[in-house]
């Protein structure tokens, strides 16, 4: 017998979001780890808010909503709030009841600004690292470093001479501009849309784009991120950021640091040895002499480091495709840096989930 296509909405709902989400859903261990880290940051949240006035969005809920935006590649806060309104899984993850009203996108963005001007993203990443350390997932001896370009949210047409005032000449906002024959450099030009971005080309034959440069320090045992740094896009930024991150590694024991050919310079190799780190960088000996010799490359550990350092490309691939960092939708080094670090924390949560943390 054919059933009737009756359309009637229920008056009452007797379900909770918790009962709808499957017990083996992959978000459950991520939510468990995230809530543990956020609970440890409660005192930091307390210092960021006044004790008087109207209550804001709970910082724990805001951070979990931002995690969803990263994990599910939601393009904007407006779309995130839209999905929170009808997606029971999203409401459960954030901690909202099925019939709870969702915040307005402008209210959410305003509350988010408070976090961007703080070091909460870095603290959140550190708390996630502590959980990985307790689970025995982190190596304290073997690391890899690398950097990647993050395209800025600015058009090449916005890259103008520093002494020029106002928008481009013409009657419209998207006029035709002929750049042929004009020499442009970061010394004489800057973007009027995002002044912190820099025109940079990584590799011969590639297009120069307005970009930032994100750097990651990875431990080699399980490919987890242990530190991040975001800098202006320059030719020496990768090595300078790597030196800062290696210097901040706790302890005074000897470590190994793997990297690609860009790190094969005398200055970088000497800096690593000053930090009690053996530089396992790929040799750049084409038409030049390498800064490392057989005293380093003859050891079996060097070949192992060269193999495992390539995992860092998986990190950048995930952050750019899933984490929406291929072309960052924020302007200014502060905002871009915050979201780069937060995306690194999200990656660690996914990686740790895949390694079995939080599933018990």
Task: Give the structure's gist in a few sentences.
The chain has helices at residues 17-20, 27-40, 42-48, 59-71, 77-86, 88-94, 105-116, 120-134, 237-247, 266-274, 294-297, 300-308, 312-321, 333-354; strands at residues 142-151, 159-161, 189-191, 198-200, 209-219, 225-232, 255-259, 277-281.
Structure description:
There is one protein chain. By secondary structure, the chain is an alpha/beta fold. Among the domains are: 17-116, no CATH class; 139-152 and 211-332, Ribonuclease H-like superfamily/Ribonuclease H (Nucleotidyltransferase, domain 5, 2-Layer Sandwich). It is 41% helix and 13% strand. The chain has 14 helices and eight strands. It has helices at residues 17-20, 27-40, 42-48, 59-71, 77-86, 88-94, 105-116, 120-134, 237-247, 266-274, 294-297, 300-308, 312-321, 333-354; strands at residues 142-151, 159-161, 189-191, 198-200, 209-219, 225-232, 255-259, 277-281. The strands form two sheets. Strands 1, 4, 5, 6, 7 and 8 form a six-stranded mixed sheet that branches. A two-stranded antiparallel ribbon has the order 2-3. Helix 10 links the parallel strand 7 (255-259) and strand 8 (277-281). Helix 2 (27-40) crosses helix 14, helix 5 (77-86) crosses helix 7 and helix 8 (120-134) packs parallel to helix 14. The radius of gyration is 24 Å and the shape is globular. It starts with 16 loop residues before the first helix and ends in a 6-residue tail after the last helix. The model has no long low-confidence stretch (mean pLDDT 88).
């Amino acid at each position: 017998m054919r059933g009737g296509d009756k359309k009637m909405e229920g008056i009452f709902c007797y379900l909770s979001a918790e009962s709808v989400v499957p017990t083996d859903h992959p978000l459950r261990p991520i939510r468990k780890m995230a809530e543990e880290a956020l609970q440890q940051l409660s005192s930091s949240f307390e210092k960021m808010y006044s004790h008087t006035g109207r209550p804001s969005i709970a910082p724990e809920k805001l951070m979990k909503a931002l995690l969803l935006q990263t994990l599910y590649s939601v393009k904007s806060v407006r779309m995130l709030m839209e999905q929170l309104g009808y997606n029971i899984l999203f409401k459960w993850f954030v901690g909202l009841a099925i019939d709870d009203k969702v915040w307005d996108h402008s209210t959410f963005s305003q509350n988010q600004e408070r976090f961007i001007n703080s070091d909460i993203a870095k603290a959140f990443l550190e708390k996630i690292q502590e959980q990985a350390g307790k689970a025995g997932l982190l190596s304290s001896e073997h690391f890899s470093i690398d950097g990647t370009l993050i395209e800025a949210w600015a058009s090449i047409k916005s890259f103008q001479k520093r002494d020029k005032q106002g928008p481009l000449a013409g009657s419209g906002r998207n006029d035709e501009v002929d750049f042929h024959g004009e020499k442009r450099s970061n010394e004489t030009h800057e973007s009027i849309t995002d002044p912190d971005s820099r025109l940079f080309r990584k590799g011969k034959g590639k297009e120069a784009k307005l970009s930032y440069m994100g750097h990651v320090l990875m431990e080699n045992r399980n490919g987890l991120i242990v530190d991040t740094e975001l800098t202006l896009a320059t030719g020496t930024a990768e090595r300078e950021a790597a030196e800062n991150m290696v210097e901040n590694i706790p302890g005074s024991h000897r470590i190994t640091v793997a990297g690609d050919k860009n790190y094969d310079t005398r200055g970088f190799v000497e800096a690593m040895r000053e930090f009690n780190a053996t530089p396992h960088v790929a040799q750049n000996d084409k038409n030049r002499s390498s800064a490392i010799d057989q005293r380093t490359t003859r050891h079996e550990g060097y070949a192992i480091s060269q193999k495992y350092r390539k995992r860092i490309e998986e990190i950048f691939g995930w952050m750019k495709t899933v984490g929406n960092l291929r072309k960052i939708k924020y302007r200014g080094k502060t905002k871009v840096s915050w979201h780069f670090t937060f995306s690194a924390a999200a990656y660690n949560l996914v990686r740790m989930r895949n390694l079995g943390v939080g599933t018990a």
